[in-house]
Design goal:
alpha/beta, eight-stranded mixed beta sheet, D-Maltodextrin-Binding Protein, domain 2, 15 strands
Length: 274
């Protein structure tokens, strides 16, 4: 398995931490170190924001950053990570089936509205006949993207498809749009070749695409908003490892809800904010 570069959170972390997974109590003070994988924005940023409050509870985080959606799950399954924070439950469920892994959610932290971003078309009305529309190529995010296109009148889907919709479920396509499946991380970099693209919130933020500039975003009361909260995941059986309860207490607490609200301008929404 490839070796991962650990991002050091605070001065208390050291380069000598073991590469294997499993939270480990410090010999002297009984504190816990959790090794958690995350995509850089917003997940690793949120974990960084939680670090001081967790340290006060005796838990130190070691964050390993990933730029894809596959390796952090494989590393959690193998034990190289204690947990990961980057995905929603539908993606996790599909990954478990496809990869034969046994990962479970221990709680939801936030929701990232997916948006339609301009490529060669400046507005939705400017999308031409036969225009190219980029969507994520994984099943769960692809279905979510199609629902957003439908909500904005670009296509119509079989009502029975729901969040599992695929291009085969398109029953009306008045502009004969070409729906192009792409790796989610590549969509922001491909806007120059597409009329528009439907992009996950974290990848949009990594490329300075702001929710305020999106041509459309998922409604707060949409099926997607109810379904796609981002979770912390662990290997089944590790739901009660030391330090995990404290991690979720902080991530679902008021301070992190305020950090999210003040940092991301609506691109990330705490699922526990009141």
């Amino acid at each position: 398995m490839k070796k991962f570069f650990a991002i050091l959170l605070t001065g208390v972390l050291t380069l000598g931490l073991a590469a294997c997974g499993g939270s480990e109590p410090a010999a002297e003070d009984g504190s816990i170190t959790l090794k958690i994988g995350a995509t850089p924005t917003p997940h690793a940023e949120i974990l960084n924001a939680a670090a001081n409050e967790l340290a006060a509870l005796g838990v130190t985080l070691e964050i390993v950053e990933f730029t894809d959606y596959v390796q952090p799950n494989l590393a959690t399954e193998s034990g190289d990570l204690d947990a990961n924070f980057f995905q929603h439950t539908p993606y996790l469920d599909t990954f478990n089936v496809d990869q034969g892994t046994d990962l479970v959610s221990v709680g939801t932290v936030h929701y990232e509205p997916m948006g339609i971003f301009a490529g060669t078309a400046a507005t939705l009305a400017d999308i031409p006949e036969g225009g190219k529309i980029g969507i994520p190529n994984d099943g769960t995010n692809g279905g979510r993207a199609l629902l957003l296109l439908e909500a904005n009148g670009l296509i119509k889907l079989d009502p029975a498809a729901g969040i599992s919709a695929t291009k085969l479920d398109i029953v009306e396509n008045p502009l004969n749009l070409e729906i192009i499946d792409m790796e989610a991380a590549q969509l922001p970099m491909s806007l120059g070749d597409l009329s528009v693209a439907v992009i996950n919130g974290n990848f949009a933020m990594q490329h300075d695409l702001k929710v305020a500039d999106a041509l459309a975003i998922e409604a707060a009361d949409s099926l997607a908003a109810e379904t796609y909260g981002n979770i912390v995941a662990v290997k089944a059986g590790n739901e009660e490892i030391p330090g995990l309860a404290e991690l979720m207490q902080v991530l679902q607490g008021e301070a992190i809800a305020e950090f999210i609200a003040n940092t991301y301008g609506g691109a990330v929404v705490s699922t526990t904010a009141k």
